[in-house]
Structure formats: structure tokens, C-alpha cells
User: Fold FAD-binding domain-containing protein from Streptomyces violaceusniger.
Amino acid sequence: MVPVQPERPGAGAAERGPGLGGDLRFSTELISFEQDPDGVTATLLDRGSERRSTVRADYLIAADGPRSPVREALGIGQSGRGELFHNVSITFRAKRLADAVGDRHFIACYLTNPEADGALLPVDNQEQWVFHAPWHPEHGEPLEAFNDERCAQHIRTAVGMPDLEVEVTGKAPWHAAERVADHYSDGRVFLAGDSAHEMSPTGAFGSNTGIQDAHNLAWKLAAVMGGWAGPALLETYGMERRPVAQATSARAAARSAEHSHPGYSAPVTEGQGPQSNVMAVAMGYRYVRGAVAGADSSAPAVPDHFTVSAEPGSRAPHMWVHRCGVRLSTLDLYERTCVLLTGPGGATWHEAGRRAADALGVPLDCYRVGEGPDHELAPEPGTDWAELHGTAPDGAVLVRPDGFVAWRAERSVPDPEAAMTRALREVLRLDG
Assistant:
């Protein structure tokens, strides 16, 4: 999580979007949309020219924030504990604050001054900063009470610099909540990001979870629209992502309690452990139902502790390998197609995978990890592909484009082509 300077909102998307085939429009409002069996028609309003236009698309993805007009229009409800606490974000300039911060580096610094608590976030680590101050509307505290002088004085007290010159440049109220949409799609319309889930910002789980939504949905849309997966694959989006959001939003609330986030006084949840097991939340989540074959359906979506695993539904592990003399991570192999990885004894899987994929019309990259010219990937000394992936040397692992293990064979079988065909059909919903 990195605070973005308000002078250049969306700069990265504006620069890269067109080159990736995107049509990026600023100051544009979605007025309405209609979906039918073949696609979605959206009516847009250019807020500058007041001109209306329509866009026709196969699908609509609503990443329109926690108040999501699209979610409301679809009548999708939300579940969860609701609002947790309220803050006012204050953007300000203070040149001397950098001297006090010194060589401390942080994303957010929680200040626990009993007279003025809050969270300090750097924007440029020089003179631009953000401060989250607690706000208690539930006790009748009006937003108007946060005038510039009060905000500046609160910041001075919180940082312990009574003579600090503070120039308030902006204020915005916000609330933290624990809410998850009851379902993630309706027909050809999908929810992603804050429209699908709200959570406390402590830990930056919300932004990570939103990016994970997009990654999960993008490859499935590409597969369905490319003709190498059945339409039912899209139903696995909410099936996979919603349990992760529910568990993550609960962990985010627990982390806020652990850090005594300004304005939040809930007790720390017993048994959560230090920092709500950040690695387990950010990297250890798994899909126990959905576009996976052979996953443990009794396993939690977010475990208590992070462990590296290649079980179906988990994030594929990293391993350094060499391809044509170039060092790369196995994670770099997982991009636009499914990938079949086999060990030094997996030649039959390699051949069977290609035949099965060709027969089904599924793009599949196949790699054998081992020494010698018959292997596309050479492991670094001291690494063991089979041990890392939980298989025998003649086992195989099928990895999705988003880097999650879709299926695993711990060892060779009498008919590997039939096994591969069943796995691809199940994962990609080719029978539906």
C-alpha cells in the first residue's frame, strides 16, 4: 500500500491502459445498464460535456466502490458486522515534520498520545502527509467540528511538536466496515474490489483483496471468451473469492484492534495471534471450492498460519529455475494459459498433457523440471521440485493462469491422458 499523490490520480492507468487495448475515460459516469443473454449495454455520461453515449460489452465489471450503485441496482445485499469506526483523513503540508521522522520508514505510524491519537502516513516523506483522526458521530460529534485549526492542533499534539507549522490541504470523512456482498455476480455483471467487500484499512488487505478479485476474474473471462472454458467457469468467481473476503475482512478488523486503530476500541480477538497472521491472509489463502480439482473442501479459506504448499487450491510455490540459461522463478511461468509442471520422471505426464489439451482445444504450456536436454527447466542446485510440490519425481501439477494450483497428481497413473482430460474438464467446466 502506497499513498498516491492527489496531483496525479490514475496516472499509471492513463499511461499504460491504451497500450493494453483499454479505453480509459475520466470524468465519466455510468447512468444505467441493461443486460440480455448476449451482453450488457451501458449508458455513460461525460461530466464535462454532458454528452451521453452507449457502450456494448460482453460483460460488466463493477469496481465502483463500497456504495456501489451497480450492486444496489442489482439488489445484491451485504452481510457482516457493518460499521466498525469512523475517521477523518487530513491531508497537510509540514516541512519540519520530516526532521522529526528522521530515518524512520513506515507506511503508517500509529500515534497513541492520550490527548490526540491518530495514524500518520507519508506521501512524499518530505512535506506532504496524511493523518487519520478519530471521529465519533455515534456520540454526536459533528463533522463540522473538524475545522482547519482543530485539525492542525490535533496533528501537533499527536506528533509532539507544539510549534509545528501545519497547512491543512484537504479533509475527507470515512468509515471502516466489515461487509461482504451476498453474491458476486448477477448474470453478466460482476462485482470486484470494494463493491464486493468492505474491510478495515489496517494491513492494506482491502486493496490486496481487490487486486486478487481482478486477477481471479480476468483469466476466467479470457478463457470463456477465448472458447477454451465453459461459461460455468465464471460461476466459480464468487465461489472462490467470497469466502476469502469474509475471512480477510474479519482478520482486518482483528488487526485494527491489535493496533488500536484511532477510533476503534474493540478487544483483540482471542487466538488471532500477532498482527492477525498477515502472511496467512495475504499469501496463504486458498480456494477450497471452484475451479480446482481434488481440493480439501474442509480446509479454511484463510488458514491460521502461512505454509508453502502445492495442494490444489493453494498458491503455487516459488522455485528458482533456469530456462535457456536465464534464471527465473516458476511464478513467472503462470500468465495467460494453464501450465503443467512435471518432475524428472514425468515424461508421460508431459506427453499426455499435450494430447489432452490439444483434443480439448485448451492452450497448455508444459515444462519438465530436471537436468539434461530433455527438460525445459533446470533446477538450481539444492532444490527439489518434487519435495516442494508434494509429489514423487513422476508426479505432476496443473497451475492456473493466476498462479493457483488447479490439480495435482502425486505420482504416475496407468492412463495419464485420461487423468489430464478429466482434470482439465473439471477445472475449466468444459462439461457444463
Remarks:
- The domain at 182-292 is CATH 3.50.50.60 (FAD/NAD(P)-binding domain).
- The first helix runs from residue 11 to 16.
